[in-house]
Model the fold of this input.
Amino acid sequence: MRRCESLFRQLLHSLGFDMPVAASVIFIHPEFTLYHAPLNTPLIFPTQINRYFKHLNSLPAKLNGKHKRLAEKLLSLHIEESPFMQLPRYEYEQLRKGIICASCGSFSCAVQGRSIVCENCGHRETVEAAFIWSIREFQMLFPDRKITTKGIYDWCKIVDSKKRLNRILEKNFNKACSGRWSYYK
Ligand SMILES: [Zn+2]
Done:
């Protein structure tokens, strides 16, 4: 946060705005907790956000054209995708298929009834949960590919029956149609 604060100050200065900066770290996930948070640090937790904004709004201040220009300038400088993200090139065909253990990352998982058990570390989870994770990974790796029963059957390998797969897909995703084919969203 200190680094951000310093960089932000430099940015303001380079844009010709000299304003005081008050920095805070705001945790927005509603279930986030931080145990033993040090007192007097500029941390704002989910349950404090409303109060924080109320406080901000109660401060007497006049917004003028300069503030608006700054807001517009900051919006125009916003970068959606980090230029520092470097992803390796990969193709669907190159990747090993199968369900990965959520605990150790091993491919040595076997179906036992309604569970998937890792033969490497013993981690156990429901077929459904493991399967949904696997689809999420598929979506993230191949955002342009549609989720179809056949495609996911090939991706997960381990799930023994297409019927079971269909049940899980139908329960957790929305079915959509394009022409003769149906897929899931
Ligand atoms: Zn494992």
